[in-house]
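Recap from last week: sequence in, structure out.
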Amino acid sequence: MRTFIAIKIPEKERKPIWALITEQKKKNLPIKWVEFENLHITLKFLGEIDEKKLDRILAVLSTISSRTKSFKMSLENIGCFPGIRNPRVLWIGVSQGGNELIKLASEIENELYKIGFKKEEKKFHPHLTIGRIKTPCCIDDIINQPIKTNQFDVKEFVLFKSILQPSGPIYEKLKIFPLL
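Predicted structure tokens:
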């Protein structure tokens, strides 16, 4: 079972992001855009997990959620990984709530490491992926597009199952973990 832990973006805040994506899709660039219902901030990608390990993962995530306070977040500005010279991923940055996301992701990382998960090699950078660039193309006009969401409450994180389909992934909520 392919899984990841994420913050789901409220529908109201996904709408301006989707409007931007819809406008960019018209340009027919070699970019695989994230679907409206799949817009989220990944805290940790677990990959394929054995269902026998699921109970331990759920216990760890429940403990973390039981001691983590909810917080406010907003998203702003477009960027890319690894850099503008060879962009592979387009994202929207976190303008508020970034420190809380870093702390939460770090705690998830450290606690899951204790039960056998590998630590990420790269430092966690809070962002919302909006597209994956398939072949090199100019994205200067995309990156310069203004985007800013309203502030919203982050009251939970979710363990998702990712089902890969030719048309794109389908994300199924396995468990919601409420924050204080």
